[in-house]
């Protein structure tokens, strides 16, 4: 009886141990991947040893946001940030603020999108997802949620600007009208029409003293590079 009992215990123990280990391994791996990386919060680089497409979570203003390692950087799901932390703001407000802050949004691959779906960051019906770094996410959220009231300026306050794209143009920049790069806040000094900054650099008037200058890869998002303050010496806006 003892031999039989001993045989039963010894034969069942390995099976029991093996079953427990196989049950714990996936759970342990999942829990480890879903915890914060614990790396330097001031760096966008992924934690040492992190693999491509590794999933994690980042606490952003007290809200857990899914992160994904992409090309050695830890990036966060912009759509998840928009639907949680920035849910009180419209898509256009978030998009315009992101562009104004110069934040580059990297599109994930279909494989990465499926990983984000399984992690709960994106709905199953989603077709695409933009990713931004942790520091970019902090800047974007802080610009909306931070307690920093803009300085009060006189309603008629303006300063003169100009650009040299094409035939060039001069205008008055009205800060009180500016809330995005698409806001019509620059009044042309010649035709008195209002333009947004990213359209003003394509607006010009050919005057007798004008000299045509080929735009240096001008596009809608590079207006800061082409807009200059009137004065001596001129300074870039």
Describe it for me?
By secondary structure, the chain is of the alpha+beta class. It has 2 domains: 33-145, Ski (Mlu1-box Binding Protein, DNA-binding Domain); 159-229, SAND domain-like (SAND domain, Roll). It contains 7 helices and 10 strands. It has helices spanning 2-34, 78-83, 91-100, 110-118, 134-145, 197-200, 223-226, and strands at residues 55-60, 63-70, 73-77, 106-107, 130-133, 159-163, 169-173, 186-188, 194-195, 228-229. The strands form 2 sheets. The protein has a 5-stranded antiparallel sheet with strand order 1-2-3-5-4. Strand 2 and strand 3 (73-77) form a beta hairpin. The longest helix has 33 residues, at 2-34. The protein is elongated. This is SKI family transcriptional corepressor 1-B. Residues 29-38 have a biased composition (Basic and acidic residues).
Secondary structure topology:
Elements: H1 2-34, E1 55-60, E2 63-70, E3 73-77, H2 78-83, H3 91-100, E4 106-107, H4 110-118, E5 130-133, H5 134-145, E6 159-163, E7 169-173, E8 186-188, E9 194-195, H6 197-200, H7 223-226, E10 228-229
Antiparallel strand pairs: 1-2, 2-3, 3-5, 4-5, 6-7, 6-10, 7-8, 8-9
Distance, first to last CA: 91 Å
Instruction: Please give the count of helices.
Output: 7
Number of strands: 10
Report helical residue fraction: 25-40%
> Which regions contain 5 or more consecutive residues with pLDDT less than 50?
1-38
Kindly list the characteristics that best describe this protein.
237 residues; alpha+beta; Mlu1-box Binding Protein, DNA-binding Domain; SAND domain; 5-stranded antiparallel β-sheet; 7 helices; 10 strands; 33% helix; 18% strand; disordered N terminus; SKI/SNO/DAC; RNA polymerase II cis-regulatory region sequence-specific DNA binding; SMAD binding
């Amino acid at each position: 009886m003892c031999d039989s009992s001993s045989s039963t215990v010894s034969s069942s123990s390995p099976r029991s141990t093996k079953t427990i280990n196989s049950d714990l391994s996936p759970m342990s791996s999942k829990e480890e991947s879903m915890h914060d990386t614990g790396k330097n919060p001031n760096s966008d680089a992924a934690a040492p040893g992190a693999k491509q497409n590794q999933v994690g979570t980042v606490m952003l203003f007290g809200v857990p946001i899914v992160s994904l390692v992409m090309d050695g950087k830890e990036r966060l799901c912009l759509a998840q940030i928009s639907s949680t932390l920035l849910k009180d703001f419209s898509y256009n407000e978030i998009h315009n603020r992101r562009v104004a802050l110069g934040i580059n949004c990297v599109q994930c691959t279909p494989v990465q999108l499926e990983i984000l779906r399984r992690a709960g960051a994106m709905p199953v019906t989603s077709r695409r997802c933009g990713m931004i770094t942790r520091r970019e996410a902090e800047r974007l959220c802080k610009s909306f949620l931070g307690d920093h009231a803009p300085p009060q300026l006189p309603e008629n306050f303006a300063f003169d600007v100009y650009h040299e794209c094409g035939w060039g143009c001069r205008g008055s920049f009205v800060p009180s009208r500016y809330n995005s790069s698409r806001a019509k806040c620059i009044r042309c000094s010649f035709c008195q029409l209002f333009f947004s900054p990213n359209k003003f650099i394509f607006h010009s008037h050919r005057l007798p003293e004008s000299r045509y200058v080929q735009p240096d890869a001008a596009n809608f998002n590079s207006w800061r590079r082409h807009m200059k303050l009137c004065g001596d010496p001129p300074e870039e806006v």
